[in-house]
Structure formats: structure tokens, C-alpha cells
Amino acid sequence: MAVDPTYYFSYTPVNIAPEVIASVFLILTATTLVQTIKSRAPLWLLILPATALSEALGYAFRTVCIYWTTLGTFTAMSLLLLLPPNALALTNYKTLGLVAQKSNLQGPVIFIMRPKFITWFFFISDVFSFVLQGLGVAISTKEGKRDLAKYTVLAGLFIQLVFFAAFFFIAVKLYRDPQYTVQRGPRDLDRVGAKKRLFRVILGTTVLLYIRGIYRVAEFVGGYGSKVYGTEWLFYLFDTSNVLVCFAIYIESFIGYHFQRRRSNKH
């Protein structure tokens, strides 16, 4: 049954903004999809258009909620706007793991710098935090379970922030170590320039996702009706804008050029 939007939002959400943002994310979906195909990038980079499409659907549901707010539409919106950006972290984890894997290293490597550790350790942590956040939103649909839902989502967010910080530290270590090299892209003069470009993407987007995570923690700590939860422009500033800037970075310095699949030699 439809209710007044303030019942779930604690404020009356603005019109036009979610429609425009949904359209922007659809453009980003198409752009990253074309980049992935044309650059012969690894197929795991389809994470980018899939994430952008999920964001577009989230803002489409936010638009629906302005006119017709139900528990179902609000929950769908919450899930689609909370969870998909976590996949951007998976992109960074896989990218750093490939840098470690493809570099010609001399001598033993400490375990935290090993490709499998970087990829799978952070992948598992991200999936775990993803599941906790999704479970928390699902629990919130149950009557009288708001506190349990809040703490479940917060647990997922805190875990994510801890591992973001650890990942950032390891990424900086790899960036400073000259043994780790990156394949040149079409805009790079040499491997040094390629490495700088790629690590600007990894580190820059990780910082933006970390800021978004801090905002989400503040939102859930305060809970329904709090200053953070009830201030819509904060959501657009610290969530929407950060995710959009992440996509701008991914598109401007596309990761796929550094890990291109080989062309087939068949004629």
C-alpha cells in the first residue's frame, strides 16, 4: 500500500534530480560498455557497466518513490543505491592483483603483496560486507526489527571501511615499489606514466568510496529521522557525487587499456 514519502524518507524527496541522475548513469552504462568492448578489455571489467546500470535502476526506483512510495519500492531503491558501488571496489582489487601478477618480480614477496592474496582476500571481505549490508536492508522490512537491521548494515559498512584502508595501504606500497610495472596504454609515453595513470585511478576511486562509506556509516548510526538521514542534499553530495566522480575517473583513464586481451591469430 502506498504511503506518504515522508513515512520512509523522513523528508519529501525532490523531483527531477533522480530522473536526471538515472539518465546520466544510463549514459555511463553505455560508455563503459563500449570502452570495454572496443579496448578488448578483460570481461571482468563488465562490472563497470553493470554497476552503472544498477545505479540507474536505483534512481529510477527513487523517482517512483516520489510519486508512489511502498515498502517494496523503497526497499528496492535502498538496495540498489547502497550495494552496487561495492562492486567498484572489486574492480580495484582485481586490478591491483593483476598488476602484482604481471610484474616481473625478483626475489621473495611478502604474502600481503601476492596476487592471490590481494585479489581473493579483499574480494571475500567485500562480498562479506555486501551480504551484511543487503541482509540489513532485508531485515528492515520486518516489523520491529529496525535496530537489528541498523546494526547489521553498520557491521557491513565498518568491515568495508577497515578493508578499504588496508587495501589503500597495500596499493601505495605497490605504487612505490619500482618492481611493479604496468602495461602502457594508448596515452602513455612509457611504463612509468602508465603506472602513475593506473594508480591514480585505484587510489582516487578508493578514497572516494571511503568517503561515501563514512557518510553511509553516519547515516545509519543516526538512524531514521536523524540530521544526516533526513538531509537529502547530503545524500547527493556524499553518495551520488562520489560514485559519479568514480565513473568519471574510470572512463577518463580506462583500466582496460592496461590489460588488453590478445587478438586471435586465426584468419
TrEMBL record:
<dbReference type="GO" id="GO:0016020">
    <property type="term" value="C:membrane"/>
</dbReference>
<dbReference type="InterPro" id="IPR007568">
    <property type="entry name" value="RTA1"/>
</dbReference>
<protein>
    <recommendedName>
        <fullName>RTA1 like protein</fullName>
    </recommendedName>
</protein>
<keyword id="KW-1133">Transmembrane helix</keyword>
<keyword id="KW-0472">Membrane</keyword>
<feature type="transmembrane region" description="Helical">
    <location>
        <begin position="197"/>
        <end position="215"/>
    </location>
</feature>
<feature type="transmembrane region" description="Helical">
    <location>
        <begin position="151"/>
        <end position="176"/>
    </location>
</feature>
<feature type="transmembrane region" description="Helical">
    <location>
        <begin position="41"/>
        <end position="60"/>
    </location>
</feature>
<feature type="transmembrane region" description="Helical">
    <location>
        <begin position="66"/>
        <end position="84"/>
    </location>
</feature>
<feature type="transmembrane region" description="Helical">
    <location>
        <begin position="117"/>
        <end position="139"/>
    </location>
</feature>
<feature type="transmembrane region" description="Helical">
    <location>
        <begin position="16"/>
        <end position="34"/>
    </location>
</feature>
<dbReference type="Pfam" id="PF04479">
    <property type="entry name" value="RTA1"/>
</dbReference>
<feature type="transmembrane region" description="Helical">
    <location>
        <begin position="235"/>
        <end position="257"/>
    </location>
</feature>
<keyword id="KW-0812">Transmembrane</keyword>
